[in-house]
Amino acid sequence: MTTVRPDAPSLEHWIAEHTEELVAFRRHLHAHPELSGEEHATTESIVERLRAAGLSPRVFASGTGAAVDIGDGPGRLALRADIDALAMDDLKEVDYRSRVPGRAHACGHDVHTTIVLGAALYLARQPTLTRPVRAIFQPAEERVPGGAISVIDDDGLRDVSEIVGLHCDPKLDVGHVGLRTGPLTSAADMVTISLHGPGGHTARPAETVDLVPIAARVVTELGAQVVARLDDPDDIRLAFGAIHAGDAANVIPTSAELRLSVRSRSAETWAVVPTLVAEELAAIVEGTGATHDLDYVKGVPPVVNDPAVTARLTDVAGRRLGDDAVTAAVHSWGGDDFAWYLRQVPGAFVRLGTRDPAWADPPQDLHVGDFDADERAIGVGIRLLVGAVLDERSASEIDVGTDRDERSPSEIDV
């Protein structure tokens, strides 16, 4: 297969020529955010633009999200973007602020979508590709356990050898990317614990099952007891986000509900922690007279970047963006359903700097009402993804190992 490496000015000219259109596309998505599974207008906008470029995208069976193939042959590289928004208000004072109350692109998915769209449009104009490409516009990333599962079940990774994705990082200056081999994000599970007792009068707590102190014990003891059973205590974080018991000061409640998030850095810990939580919860409640129910919902696995793919992306980023643009990404306790793809094929997830260094305010976080991105990051992301396709050898030339889970996520007990 002929290797085609268009020189930088060719791509730079295309980006300069299309920057206004790409920014406008991103701002349109930003102003019209849609929640997980409801991304119909977003999908229509993506599909319409791809068809205008002469491509033939297909909408996923779920009814939202789409994929499009560019080129034929072995070693197909998938480029993934997530397209859904968050259920929160947009607090920015900009003309592209969300026009939908309680909906906001506060995680940068509109930026991701625009970048993958731009990369697809540029690559579609190349007479020859070093490897074929599939652009995946995935719905429902924010919904546990993630829309990636439905994409995989809908043959989204059929014939794909590797996958690359990126995510906005508002703590990293625009023009920079963060890369890391191994675990980049964490597994994220949600747990609901329900305690039950007969209730009673607060004048006579010894004559009943006093659920409030029992709930307090669960909050203060459960995490420490689970951590104590792990070889690496730094491999997990347990945090209670909600607790409710009773409504009156003189009534001992008959029920209490506690909600907990559990985050694991390694797939090994993610596999065993539900059992540990169940066993330690039972030990705390035992002998108190209370009964309990445990609803443990497994979310997404950790994102674990493949060493070979990460090394090649680091090389591409150095050549396309400059050596000083590449930084070592730190591990995040957040989660992303991109992890499901990496259990099927090798790949890497990249942190994309979106902060304007001139901004006087401290770095933002994701999932906050005033989140915004320096839109120069769109061009940076396109340069990286285009380079991942045009600058690299085929995945068929690379030994990627055979230790991956070949099952669909829907066949895995999550």
List the helices and strands and how they pair.
Elements: H1 8-31, H2 40-52, E1 58-59, E2 66-70, E3 76-82, H3 109-123, E4 133-138, H4 148-153, E5 160-173, E6 177-179, E7 182-183, E8 187-196, E9 200-201, H5 211-228, E10 236-245, E11 251-252, E12 255-264, H6 267-285, E13 291-300, E14 304-305, H7 307-321, E15 326-328, H8 338-342, E16 347-355, H9 376-390
Parallel strand pairs: 3-4, 3-5, 5-16, 6-15
Antiparallel strand pairs: 1-2, 2-4, 6-16, 7-14, 8-12, 8-13, 9-11, 10-12
Which properties best describe this structure?
single chain; 414 residues; alpha/beta; 31% helix; disordered N terminus; disordered C terminus
Poorly predicted regions are 1-9, 393-414
Q: How many strand elements?
A: 16
Share of residues in helices: 25-40%
SS element count, helices: 9
Q: How large a portion of the residues is in β-strands, by DSSP E?
A: 15-25%
User: Which whole number gives the mean pLDDT?
Assistant: 92
Description:
The chain has 414 residues and is α/β, with parallel strands linked by helices. The protein is 31% helix and 23% strand. The protein has 9 helices and 16 strands. The strands form 4 sheets. An 8-stranded mixed sheet has the order 1-2-4-3-5-16-6-15. The chain has a 4-stranded antiparallel sheet with strand order 10-12-8-13, covered by helices on one side. Helix 1 (8-31) runs antiparallel to helix 3 (109-123), helix 3 packs across helix 9 and helix 7 packs across helix 9. The longest helix is centred in the first third of the chain and has 24 residues, at 8-31.
